[in-house]
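Course assignment 3, question 2. Fill in each field.
Student: A.L.
Task: Predict the tertiary structure for the chain below.
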Amino acid sequence: MNHEELVRAIQRVGMGTFVKYFEAFSNEAKESDDLVDALIKIEGYGDDSARTKVNSARRILSCNLGLGQL
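Answer field:
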C-alpha cells in the first residue's frame, strides 16, 4: 500500500472510527461480518458504509500500518 492508498483507506474508514474500534479491527478472531453488524447497530452506519469501513481498516492493518505507523 503506497501513501496515496493509505490516505484513501483512512478517509474511507474515518480516523475517529479507526481509533475507536482499533482493537476490534485488529482482532483477527472477530469476523468482518460481525464488525459490520456492530457498526450498523452502534454507530447507525448503512450496510455498505460499515462494510467499507471494516474492509478499509482491515486492509490498513494487514499492511502493518496501524496506529504506531500513521
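Instructor remarks: The two ends are 13 Å apart (CA to CA). The first helix runs from residue 3 to 13.
Grade: pending
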